[in-house]
C-alpha cells in the first residue's frame, strides 16, 4: 500500500520514518498483519462454536459468556501492563514473537477441553499470550510509520484483524460442522506457531526503540500517572470501554442468536455472517483510518467528532437487525451494523498513540486495551449470557434477543465520551509530543 516507504521529504510522497526502507517497512507491516489476523482468529473462534460447546460440554449461557469474555479479558488485563512496560524497554519484537507462539499453543489446548474448568484454563492461557499482541504491534507500527500515515498503517493491522475474525466464523464453522469443534481449535494453532517463529527470526527491533528505549525506562506506575493526567486519553479509554460492552457482546453472541432463533447450523451462519460482516468491517477499518488521517490534517479534534457520530449512528441498525423476523433481512442489516460499528477501530488506535507519545507507546496502548478488555470484552459476553439465561426461562429463544438489545444502550456512552475528549485533545497531544 502507499503508506510504505521512507520518511516523507518536503513533498510528502514517501510516508515511513527515516531509516526504515520501503521493502523493510512493507515486510514488517505484512507480517504484523498476519499476526494480527491470527490474534483475532484465535480470540473470536469460540463465537461460532457456542452451540457446539454448550451441547457437548453441558454449559449454560452464563458459562459461555465467561469463556468468551471474562476468562480471556481478566488475564489479558492483568498481564498487559507489565508486558508492555518490558516491551517499551526495547524488546518489542521479542515480546510479540513469544506472545504469538504462546497464545497459539493455548488455542490448540482449547480443543482438548473436557468441561468448563479445563476450557477456562485454556482461555486464560490465550488471554495471557494475547496481552503481548495488540499493544506491542501498535508500538512497532508507530515506530515504523510517520504521524501522517500512522492511522493508515494501523488500518491495515485492523483490516487483518477483521479478516481473522471473519475467517474464524467461516473457517471455524465449516471445520466444526464437518470435523468437530475440537479440530477447529487444533487447526488454528499450527499457523500461529509458524508465523511467530518467522517473525522472531526475520524482524529487527525498530531503530528508535533499540537506540532510545533500552535506556532506563519509566516505571509502569509513573508512566500511567503521566497518561492519566491527560483528560482526552481518559475519556477515550472510558468511552470505548463502555461502548465495547455492547460491541463485544454482539460479537460473541450474534452468531449463536442467528443459529438459535432462526434454526440455522454453524456452517451456514459462519459462512453467511463472515461474507457480510467481514467485508463491511474491512471497509470500515480502512475507511476509518484514511478518513481519520484526512480529518486530523484539518483539525486535531475532527476524528473525535466523527467517532462520536459513528457511535450514536450504530444504535438504530443494531436494533433493526435484532428485531427482524427474517433471517435474510437480519443478514442484510448486519452489513450497515458492522460497517458503522467498526469505524472506531483505526482512528482510536491512532488517537491513543498520539496521546501517548513516543516514550509511552506500548504502555499507552496496553492501558487502553486493558480498559477495553477488562470492561468491554470481560463484561459484554458475560452480561449478555447472564441476561439470556434470565430471559430465556420466560421467553425461550427470544431471551438472547432481549439481552442483545439491552446491551446496545452502551453505545450512547461512546458518543458522549468522544465529545468530551475533543475538548482537550489538542492540548493533550501537544503534551505527548513534547514529553
Keywords:
single chain, 435 residues, mainly alpha, 19 helices, disordered N terminus
Q: Encode the helix/strand succession as letters.
A: HHHHHHHHHHHHHHHHHHH
Low-confidence stretches: 1-20, 209-216
As a percent range, the share of strand residues is under 5%
Shape: globular
Main structural class: mainly alpha
Helical stretch count? 19
Q: Helical proportion?
A: over 70%
Description:
There is one protein chain. By secondary structure, this protein is mainly alpha-helical. It is 81% helix and 0% strand. α3 (61-87) runs antiparallel to α4 (92-110). The longest helix is centred in the C-terminal third of the chain and has 35 residues, at 361-395. It starts with 21 loop residues before the first helix and ends with a helix. The relative contact order is 0.15.
Amino acid at each position: 500500500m502507499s503508506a510504505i516507504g521512507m520518511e516523507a521529504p518536503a513533498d510528502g510522497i514517501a510516508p515511513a520514518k527515516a531509516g526504515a526502507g520501503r521493502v523493510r517497512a512493507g515486510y514488517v507491516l505484512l507480517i504484523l498483519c498476519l499476526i494480527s489476523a491470527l490474534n483475532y482468529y484465535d480470540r473470536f473462534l469460540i463465537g461460532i462454536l457456542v452451540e457446539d460447546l454448550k451441547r457437548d460440554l453441558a454449559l449454560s449461557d452464563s458459562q459461555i459468556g465467561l469463556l468468551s469474555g471474562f476468562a480471556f479479558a481478566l488475564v489479558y488485563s492483568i498481564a498487559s501492563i507489565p508486558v508492555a512496560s518490558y516491551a517499551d524497554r526495547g524488546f518489542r519484537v521479542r515480546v510479540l514473537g513469544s506472545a504469538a507462539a504462546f497464545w497459539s499453543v493455548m488455542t490448540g489446548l482449547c480443543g482438548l477441553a473436557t468441561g468448563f474448568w479445563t476450557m477456562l484454563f485454556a482461555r486464560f492461557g490465550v488471554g495471557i499470550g494475547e496481552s503481548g499482541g495488540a499493544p506491542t504491534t501498535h508500538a512497532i507500527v508507530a515506530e515504523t510509520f510517520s504521524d501522517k500515515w500512522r492511522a493508515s498503517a494501523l488500518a491495515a493491522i485492523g483490516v487483518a484483524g477483521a479478516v481473522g475474525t471473519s475467517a474464524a466464523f467461516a473457517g471455524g464453522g465449516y471445520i466444526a460442522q464437518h470435523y468437530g469443534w475440537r479440530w477447529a481449535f487444533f487447526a488454528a494453532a499450527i499457523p500461529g506457531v509458524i508465523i511467530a517463529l518467522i517473525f522472531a527470526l526475520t524482524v529487527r527491533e525498530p531503530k528508535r526503540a533499540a537506540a532510545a528505549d533500552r535506556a532506563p525506562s519509566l516505571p509502569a506506575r509513573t508512566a500511567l500517572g503521566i497518561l492519566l493526567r491527560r483528560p482526552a486519553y481518559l475519556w477515550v479509554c472510558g468511552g470505548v470501554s463502555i461502548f465495547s460492552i455492547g460491541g463485544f457482546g454482539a460479537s460473541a453472541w450474534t452468531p449463536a442468536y442467528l443459529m438459535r432463533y432462526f434454526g440455522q447450523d454453524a456452517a451456514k451462519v459462519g459462512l453467511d455472517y463472515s461474507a457480510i460482516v467481514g467485508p463491511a468491517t474491512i471497509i470500515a477499518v480502512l475507511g476509518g483510518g484514511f478518513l481519520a488521517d484526512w480529518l486530523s490534517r484539518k483539525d486535531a479534534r475532527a476524528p473525535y467528532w466523527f467517532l462520536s457520530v459513528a457511535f450514536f449512528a450504530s444504535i438504530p441498525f443494531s436494533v433493526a437487525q435484532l428485531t427482524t423476523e427474517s433471517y435474510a433481512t437480519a443478514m442484510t442489516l448486519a452489513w450497515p451494523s458492522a460497517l458503522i460499528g467498526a469505524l472506531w477501530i483505526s482512528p482510536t488506535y491512532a488517537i491513543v498513540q498520539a496521546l501517548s507519545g513516543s516514550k509511552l507507546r506500548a504502555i499507552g496502548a496496553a492501558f487502553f486495551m486493558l480498559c477495553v478488555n477488562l470492561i468491554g470484552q470481560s463484561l459484554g459476553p458475560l452480561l449478555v449470557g447472564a441476561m439470556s439465561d434470565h430471559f430465556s426461562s420466560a421467553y425461550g429463544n427470544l431471551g438472547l434477543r432481549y439481552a442483545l438489545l439491552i446491551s446496545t444502550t452502551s453505545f450512547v456512552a461512546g458518543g458522549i465520551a468522544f465529545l468530551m475528549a475533543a475538548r482537550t485533545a489538542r492540548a493533550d497531544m501537544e503534551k505527548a509530543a513534547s514529553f
